[in-house]
Amino acid sequence: MMELVCPAGTPAALRAAVDAGAHTVYCGFADETNARNFPGLNFSREELAEGVAYAGARGAKVLVAINTFPRAGDQALWHRAVADARQAGAHAVILADLGLIAHAAETHPDLRLHLSVQAAAANPDAINFYAETFGIRRVVLPRVLSVEEITAINRQIDIETEVFVFGGLCVMAEGRCSLSSYATGLSPNMNGVCSPASHVAYSEVAGNNEARLGGFLIHRTPKGAPLPYPTLCKGCFTSPSGGGQAQTGHIFEDPVSLDATELIPKLQAAGVRALKIEGRQRSRAYVAQVVRAFRAAVEAAEVGEPMPAGLLSKLTEGQAATTGAYAKTWR
Amino acid sequence: MTEPHPLPPLLRRLPIPPLAPQAASLALTAFLRRIARRNPAILARLGPHERARFLIDVTDGPLLLVMEPGRRRITAHPRAATPAHDAAIRGRLAPFLSMLHGIEDGDALFFQGDLQISGDTAAVLALRNALDCAELDLTEELAAIPGQPLSRWLRRASGLAERRSGYALSRQEMLP
């Protein structure tokens, strides 16, 4: 059966994921070493050790995401995170930065290393370099590849592949976005936050609700209508066209979430080892519902039954879903 | 479970008895202190945001509430004047209870427009995450108050009210 890799932002979410049928849970420390560094989220060292024990007692594994990029002169925080994840009994660490991967491979040769989606390794040469040089055992593929491209990659590499099947999407090449940095001064890759909550402001102006990020107006909706979180890439903007007429729309990306449930059999046939669910910033209720649905889906795929559809639309951003780049219908 | 209806509109129209806000403040503060004692991790997760003043506007309820976790205090206020606050969360009682008891996802409720927030977004996020991790059960918190003789009755009444009204009055058990 394909391995289901599930998110946990808190110990309660970790327990919910394991109880709902996760084979593996990934989480991070409560600091800048992981890409979901939000207020009130993530794990202390003690909580991680307890989480590993809870998962282990039920046959599940825990991965620790240390997937931001260490700042020059300040690498000790990231080095300590790798050592502490190993000490807590994590099955593997998920890393993105080349220097941190080299450090982990040299300092902790027995620690299993996964390559984060943030590393943006999207072709066999890049993946094989990481595998041969540092002993990377699994690569999380960027969400820019079609199923056919994933099939081609799997034919030319010897390590496991993991792909996202559900949750938020990112329009940029993974790990290379500067929109949040431009608006807030804080970088997803360096500080672990895209569109940090500390720079978000919701307000009511002249009968409308407005959502701003770092002072930039990202969304305006009539009072009472849903107002999305102001992520810059998913903003609704008004801009003049060439003819001078104003156009309003989602300039970069529609606020939809990935749902690749229907493609699970094809991903299985493509040689994908593990399916990943995004959403460490979401609640334990989200984790339980999504994990339960995807556990049923991978079990169905295993015996060749059809995939369940449309179960999770309520949980997605904009209540709309896409299969993203896996099926590049625009080509 | 039954789909919960909003609280009766009459609740918002009834005149508030003069001492009702003070009485509600005392009772809710005592309850908050008990929860904070039994769940110290909530304040640890809030971190610096424990100093924030959270306006809890249950839009189908009669009073506005201001929760100050750092001061272990909840105060109730008539709707006529909005009290000072740093962050606000607004919505009907049903989504508040569903979120608190782990039945519905806070982000999904927000995306659907069932909950609205304003003010210090980081503080709201920290509170949401801290409460979600605490896995609170309000019925159990009330039933476990020492010296009160109605624990068994309270649990049974809560279960019955939950089934009849559709309001989430206790924690969702995660089934393996």
UniProtKB/TrEMBL annotation, chain B:
Entry-linked InterPro entries: SCP2_sterol-bd_dom
Pfam families tied to this protein: SCP2
Superkingdom: Bacteria
Domain SCP2 per the UniProt entry, residue ranges: 34-132
The name this protein goes by in its record: SCP2 sterol-binding domain-containing protein
